[in-house]
Amino acid sequence: MDVGWFVVNLFNYQIGMHTLAIIIYDKAGNSTEKKVNFSITADIKSAIADIQEIYQRGWLKSSSRKNILIGELKILDSALDLLDKAKIKIIAQIQEAKSNSKLSAKAKEKLIATLNKELAELKKNRSKIIKLDLAIFEKTLNEAKKSNYLNQAGYDIIKSDLEYLKNNL
């Protein structure tokens, strides 16, 4: 039995929902069709990979601009990692407070309220950091396009990643 393998490069596909249809024929001419729906999304790592691919294709003509764009995303990724670790720590403290039999009900309530305020502040700061860092990234991206270091196709792909990150981080 021959088994055929194929790879589909999704680099040029837009973020969003897609359908892959596969039709298979046997030697007698019989066929069967299978459709699979899938979604293309973006995260910081995939946006970095897109910048690298765009640079390799020659659509981004400056290695320093590539490194700046990637560096800005890595800074955001590191900041979000730190915030996520802080969130995990606060959640663990809340769980610990809830199960602490040495604390009075009133002391537990007060401690948990304080920790929940810290969580809310962390969430607010996370949103501010994302907004600020992505605004800086967008400015750098637009400058690369304006200075003709980045062609339209590359710009559109990175801009699509940026918009997805703005709405989904």
Describe this structure in words.
The protein has one domain (44-168). Helices cover 64% and strands 12% of the residues. It has four helices and two strands. It has helices at 44-56, 63-99, 105-146, 152-168, and strands at 16-25, 31-40. Strands 1-2 form a two-stranded antiparallel ribbon. Helix 3 (105-146) runs antiparallel to helix 4. It starts with 15 loop residues before the first strand and ends with a helix.
Provide the descriptors you would attach to this structure in a database record.
two-stranded antiparallel sheet; 4 helices; 169 residues; 64% helix; mainly alpha
Topology summary:
Blueprint: E1 16-25, E2 31-40, H1 44-56, H2 63-99, H3 105-146, H4 152-168
Antiparallel strand pairs: 1-2
Helix pairs in contact: 1-2, 1-4, 2-3, 3-4
Q: What is the 3D shape? A: flat
What percentage of amino acids are in beta strands?
Answer: 5-15%
How far apart are the termini? 46 Å
Topology order in helix (H) and strand (E) letters: EEHHHH
Overall number of structural domains? 1
Low-confidence stretches: none
- Can you summarize the main beta sheet? 2 strands, antiparallel
Q: DSSP helix count? A: 4
Mean pLDDT: 95
